[in-house]
């Protein structure tokens, strides 16, 4: 029944459009949709197809089945370190940046003085390019000229923060978290502003402590924000590229998947099929999260 | 919606000392010490870059970073501008970002309008198509585009490489295509909050789709458009990957990628690098400080409904 009326109103809607309307609609909907397909979805599909071929970008395209994937998993030394680094990235942002951003948002939301100053300062790094963050990280962590070594005073026997493959990923994670924390904080601040104050009052009247109020009353209402923060954190961790590329082109302890893709296609080798296989691994992982998120969105849409 | 705090009830004007003292309980002081500490830690890398960029390399290498300055100058900024041609790269960035932002917003606004105001069938599908596209990792689409762009010929007046590859068109197109998703998502959410009656009144008056969009809906979206404008400009300005992959001619690179030129092969003058970083970061920082409200609104518009 509901479907019926919807269809009828849609039909009535269609007859509402004049010929000129249809031209406008066709053009202004057509261009962006075509662009989205040509730039985003078409290439995504093409990547999947190319990942089953051995292609160098020039010669003929030869089908090799899952050979690229087999090579990738067993015979490509940088692959597993890159996967580990991407996971580490996710873990670090998720377990350090996100809780820290939430804490800062909660503190600022309580209405301390100078809150505008704190807010502005804390999310200032968000506007910086990740590439610039990478360069600033070099100023701080570089072995001979870096500030960190100067602060801790070991200029005699300097630590190579960005050169030591055991250490450098952690320094890069700090730099990435510097930027991500501010982003998380803004989102939570916006979410906290939207929480109905009467909820908190009711909890206070019932004798709940501040911590109880937060975890039992406020935090559950932040669910939509939590989902967004989660998606952004996953996406950021999978996309990680600019910082490591700016520091050392993602080598020597800073391998990440996105760098491997870029290396394989624009490097001298131009192993397009193989590079695509790495990209598809990224795609599969991120699609899991994207779909979860979209399902939630559609549900919200229906209940609206 | 902004994150600006209205003065909270506890923060009373400075002319009421008695009440203010009550606001400074030990817990409060702890919070301030903590927030101040974190703020300083967040600002430190930037301040450091500024400080380093103003001092000659010899001086910092001799006396260390935390010595008092004996000699402050803008020499490194001059050098960054003259030696590496920062001005040219700035112009390159604008050539990409300005049309990029305008086209993206115009197209996204219409899609959002169609999806949220015209009650079209398949609207949700369209919305999902765009939103999900924006969430994909860039590297997934890079390879095929790289191949295709290399094969699309362009006349010389459009691209001196005679192909789509290594031209501004490629980067602008990818920016628009990729950023459409986010803008559609945000604008559709915003337009849904506008009262439907305004549109219905216009339809009764015989307004066509274009009038409904351009004259009636768009003016009401000014806050959302302003927010997205700020945000998208920052993002396109900051982009690093697209130009890196789709351009081979160093002279066309946008400013973020050009930073790499300041790095020597064997010896890197970190003070010069600091000056370069400050130059690159300055425009987005200024945009942020001037248009803070819009910037934050853009980030949060899509998330809290």
How would you describe this structure to a colleague?
- The complex is a heterodimer of chains A (304) and B (305).
- Chain A is mainly alpha-helical.
- Chain A has 14 helices and 2 strands.
- Chain A has a two-stranded antiparallel sheet.
- In chain A, strand 1 (53-54) and strand 2 (62-63) form a beta hairpin.
- In chain A, helix 4 (79-109) packs parallel to helix 8 (168-193) and helix 11 runs antiparallel to helix 14 (272-303).
- Chain A is globular and about 75 Å long.
- Residues 1-11 of chain A have low confidence and may be disordered.
- Chain B is mainly α.
- In chain B, 70% of the residues lie in helices and 0% in strands.
- Chain B contains 15 helices and no strands.
- The longest helix of chain B is centred in the first third of the chain and has 32 residues, at 86-117.
- Chain B is globular, with a radius of gyration of 25 Å.
- Chain B starts with 16 loop residues before the first helix and ends with a helix.
- Mean pLDDT of chain B is 84; it is low at 1-23.
- Chains A and B meet through helix 1, helix 2, helix 4, helix 5 and helix 6 of A and helix 2, helix 5, helix 6, helix 7 and helix 8 of B.
In total, the number of strands of chain B is 0
Overall average pLDDT of chain B: 84
**Largest sheet data of chain A:** 2 strands, antiparallel
Proportion in helices of chain A: over 70%
- The side-by-side strand order for the widest beta sheet of chain A comes to 1-2
Structural class of chain A: mainly alpha
Shape of chain B: globular
Largest interface: A-B, 112 and 110 residues
Tell me the radius of gyration of chain B.
Answer: 25 Å
Strand content of chain A is: under 5%
Quote the beta fraction of chain B.
under 5%
Q: What is the β-strand count of chain A? A: 2
Measured distance between first and last alpha carbons of chain A: 19 Å
Tally of DSSP helical segments of chain A: 14
Which assembly state applies to the chains in this document? heterodimer
